[in-house]
Amino acid sequence: MLTPTQVLSLCAAGAVIAVALLGWGIRSLVGLNARGEVAVLPVLAEQAVFLTEPGDVLLALRTQQARTGFGGVSFAMRSAGGTVAVQGRPILMRARWIDLSGNVKLSVHRFSVSQPGEYLLASNGLHAGVDYSGARLVLERPMGMALPLHLLWVLGAATGLIVAVVFAMIALVGDASGG
Question: What confidence tier does 148 reach under pLDDT thresholds 50, 70, 90?
Answer without folding.
Answer: confident
